[in-house]
Amino acid sequence: MDVDARVEAWASLQLLHGLPARTLVTLLKHFGGPVELHAASQRSLAKLVSPEVASVIERGPDPAVLETTLTWLREPCHGLAAWDDTDYPSALLAIADPPPVFYYAGRRELLNRPAIAIVGSRNATPQGLEHAEAFAAALSAAGLTIVSGLASGIDAAAHRGGLAAVGSSVAVVGTGLDRVYPPSNRELAQRLERDGGMLSEFAMGTPPLPENFPRRNRVISGLSRGVLVVEATLNSGSLITARLAAEQGREVFAIPGSIHSPFSKGAHRLIRDGAKLVETAQDVLEELGIEVTDHARGTAPPSGEASKAPAAEGTSAKVLAAMGHDPAGIDVLARRTGLAAEAITVALVELEVAGRVLSLPGGLYQRR
Amino acid sequence: MDVDARVEAWASLQLLHGLPARTLVTLLKHFGGPVELHAASQRSLAKLVSPEVASVIERGPDPAVLETTLTWLREPCHGLAAWDDTDYPSALLAIADPPPVFYYAGRRELLNRPAIAIVGSRNATPQGLEHAEAFAAALSAAGLTIVSGLASGIDAAAHRGGLAAVGSSVAVVGTGLDRVYPPSNRELAQRLERDGGMLSEFAMGTPPLPENFPRRNRVISGLSRGVLVVEATLNSGSLITARLAAEQGREVFAIPGSIHSPFSKGAHRLIRDGAKLVETAQDVLEELGIEVTDHARGTAPPSGEASKAPAAEGTSAKVLAAMGHDPAGIDVLARRTGLAAEAITVALVELEVAGRVLSLPGGLYQRR
Fold this sequence. Notes:
- Two copies of one chain form a homodimer.
- By secondary structure, the first copy, chain A, is an alpha/beta fold.
- Helix content of chain A is about 45%, strand content about 15%.
- In chain A, the strands form two sheets. The first copy, chain A, has a nine-stranded mixed β-sheet, with helices on both faces. A three-stranded antiparallel β-sheet of chain A has the order 10-12-11.
- In chain A, a hairpin with a 3-residue loop joins strand 11 (about 355-360) and strand 12.
- In chain A, helix 16 crosses helix 18.
- The radius of gyration of chain A is 24 Å and the shape is elongated.
- The interface of A and B includes residues 258, 268, 335 and 363 of A.
């Protein structure tokens, strides 16, 4: 695929260092567009900007980096989106400092779908990962695109849940799009590039620099109508994303949990500060004023099968009732129901197949 | 102990049926006090009230019930508090419909101490009971009297926690004070009568009538600076108490929990409606503007031993770290730590003795 002059001009502008966004706006207005800006003489530039900035533009980007970028842009489904693109995300344009241009790999139409961000800690609990995936699947089924940051833990689970339904998922990353960080998410990144989207405002080759991640977070919230924090410790970057979302006028949602879990403390702080406490995907949709589909209904976060599963009957129903809402082993269930261990084992297999219970390590089972 | 004329007059007034509080205020103002009101002729009464009300007063209460009441009042530490008592609780006087008179057994000085109500479901979880008792103990240690309703479950745990420290505890009940409901709380009621307080606005002999309990709840919140809901299902009476507290301008606090637990749904609804989410007793004290003592400090609700327990060391520390915040069995802990089952068993016994873990049914252990 060929890269047209406008895209090449934007890529060049993106690669310039030391060009403030405000200055860029002035220059683009004056010259009419990125191609014209590139063709401008240093003399005409010098009338508008400092000699330093004029020479930065005149000199242009590092040719090797530009060539890498253009090679990347020639791949199928690779592209960039700039301020003057008609499909630059309108939600992102509404924030105080939208990136003038970003790179994008994946399904372009996802950029203007209603979206929700789901974020949380990297070292989340199994329960937290399950929540992230289940809420993401239900919200995606309701037509929302799930935006997250491709980190391990909650982010990855949210992307997986989003990819499972119609709304799909977009990752906003803090590196160049020719890199995957963390490497363990390489396969997930490939799925996102094919069925969802990968987005970065950073140049090709940019490594995972800590200073880029808070900057990246404003794009996660900026693309979204709201941010759902699933599990977050008090020092989690998710709290920064939530704060940015509130500053951008977006909704903030948080899932509560045990007062003894450090992974619920972040969510609890957000709720105290005004975030909406949510128990189900339906709660989120109602707050956003989105019509609730059957997928998102239910008292617990619907996880694909579970919401469609038929009601348990006979022995299975008895075992399910005895299970309560905490993990339980076969011995406990035997004591509670008075049934033989064999009967319980059979019932648990049935319930697991029906998607109503989850098998945990250590021979424990939990309602899902 | 003898019952003076004023107390007898108030007991008589309390036993009259069909005398609205508003009318009572008018009559007391006119005649100067309960004794004078009792001595009033029907003719002078008829000038102020309807003939029906005048004859109710003139006829007086059922002599047998009055005698039962006076017998009860003659017991040590039994008494009544009426509007014109200097130690009628000032917090209760501030509500829209304070009872003109109530019966009280116990330590009279507790009636005017700063108080907090702790309420919740009868069928609470073990975790909920632990929270109720631990928060109550910490808040009582900070000088707050714990008010609750003597029900099974959260109420009883809150009373026990309150009795354990300096603030003590007062039960507001929906029956006559010569009865205990539920009977399983008889021993607790005796402890409250000795070391705390038992309070009722209902006549001696009043059985546990369902219609009296919501009325009783306004006194629970009315005595208190705030109401803490520990665990409550969506149809729990605790939500009524919380609503009354909000109407009375008192603080409402709620402890969050798992989105899968029906016992957390009431607390979550309250938080959505504006209740303060609290994780520790310190959170409650800070909201109430009460100086925080060492007892109430700490990230988790301090439960006696746990807060004083020394840090676990060596194997114990390893096992504790592997436990996380969900119940876990020895096999799971063995897998997570790589330690032999015997070493883990020894460590768990040490941790249990040190008050750092709780042994649950089914061979599970949980951090406390």
